[in-house]
User: Fold this.
Amino acid sequence: MKVLWITSAYPSDSQPGSGVFHETQVQALHRLGVDVTVICPVPRSPAFIRPFRNVDKVNQDIPSKYERKGVMVYRPYYLALPGQLRWAQPDKRIAAVIMKTLIDYELAPDLIHAHFAMPSGGAARIVAAEKKLPWMLTLHGSDVNVYPFYSSFSKKAFLQSVRTADSVVAVAGDLQRKTIELAGRESLVLPIGIDLSQFQQPDQTGQQMRRQLGLPEDKKIITFVGRLTEAKGVFELARALDFLSNEIAILFVGDGPAKEKLSKNPEFNSRLFITGQVDNMRVRDYLFASDVFALPSYTEGMPTVVLEAIALKIPVICTAVGGVPDLFGEHRDLLIEPKSVSSLVQRIQDILNRNLYTPRILRDLYEQVQKNYYSHTNAVQLKENYRSLLN
Assistant:
């Protein structure tokens, strides 16, 4: 079985933290004997804009072809216009470079699995029709919660992808419900999950890990992991420092457009730290060295980093968005509302000073992850879905 994955984010040596959740599932499928090839097109601005855009400077270090953990990854460039996800969907341009890649490297997949309704879903729709292949679409969060509401053009692109895919998968129940509301299309709920074998308690103590990572050993550390954007609630988290004692520090693990503004915070280098993008195995180390993990996003699908923190039995502060309430189940009252600095401050104090996360709560959440969010178990089901689609 040869499966072509089409996605807009996948790790590389220069960007090890990009699309790690995709690689987690690809590796789980690879271990099950599924022959997966990844095409992850790279956006590139018109030449006269390129020197002024940081994203183009970063993307120029990505090779056009590389092997990563036994999987071939192709990264062809396509022309990206400013505001394309709002007004000018790049479906045809992405589809064209995918088709060229298939021809140039003589790739002959049996089916296509696209991730995110736009832009990957739109491109997959075109390629699948041209190659007469069945295709599956996985919805991850922003493609349901955010992009369809940019404009009538983006809404149309979303509906085209969702309604024409041969099979639709949502990573959380909340996305499944919203997809029915928006497009009248049923979907299967199948989280990507995490590789639990990679998120076991390390041999070192938390203090030893901090020393190894160069983190302060005399402070309580609240850690954020993810893309540094306003929609992830990073500014609310940074502002929370103004209302917390000096013994509390915040660590941002990741990169993104909010990095420069966060770096100008008066507490930077004393109580606020930014690592930049790191490999996923290092993410585990930073989580283990933390007292609390925080992800105060405005919207989410099913953030895998929350699963990773729970697997390490780290107390979690998260907003009640996307599939997170389903994950927390009877403990969903631990979640907070988005865009609220006061809620963040209160929850941090509850955890650090009032032992909010009891051993029982940590155990319950860990068992929930084991049962429903183990990447191997979910990859077995996905492989069966591939077989059904081919039949």
User: Anything to note?
Assistant: The mean pLDDT is 93.
